[in-house]
Write a structure and sequence with these properties.
By secondary structure, the chain is mainly alpha-helical. The protein has 12 helices and no strands. The radius of gyration is 18 Å and the shape is globular.
Length: 250
Amino acid sequence: MWFTEAAVGAGIYGLVAGALVPALIARIPEPETAEAAQTDADLPSEGEPAGPPEAATAKERYRDIAARRGLRWQAVLATGAVSALVGGSLGWQASLVIFLYLAPVGVALAVVDWRTRLLPTKLIAPSYAAVIVLAAFAAWTDGDWSPLLTAGWGWLVAGGTFFVLWFVYPRGMGYGDVRLSGVLGLALGYLGWGPLLTGVYAGFVVGGLGGLVLSLLRVVDRRAYPFGPFMLVGALVGVLVGPHVAAWYA
């Protein structure tokens, strides 16, 4: 009963929050120079070779993305669905607030990364502070501070894994993916090791299989497609399936 009510309540919240996604995208500051654009993204996501500085300024502008026809209702449906799934999985527990924050932000990041193959730091960096504050609030509400420890481990495991991959082969992964992995690692780690490891692993599986299918359908270039949306889908899988995986192993 509680899980059903939480799913409905979170879904209604997601429908409202999703309507704000275009405005959130439009508020991302555009890099003023080619050098700033490269700093904002560092390297294109997943397989995009590093190009000349001029290439960074050729990307689609954020306000143009926000003004695309149909984006608002698509964001409403996506955010509503994600929020409902998370609410149904977590129920009315304090950790739900972390993922209700991440739902519209994640949809906005997925849209931006898909359109530009860039994950803007100016949207990811504040999310670190927001997730940490919300995680501390959830721990205080529950009277249990131990999830903050696994949240920290989540940041180290997820962020460290992606950093190593970027360091070994920087042309195969954008540093924006590394930044995003830390935020997702914090959130998933708060839920425990099952959601964390499942979410990280699912991101690679979904990214690999999804990229293959989309490349075969000629939707994306196999050598240059955004990985951020697949990371976000993987994180959702971690929330939904991770606890069951952990219970199965236990």
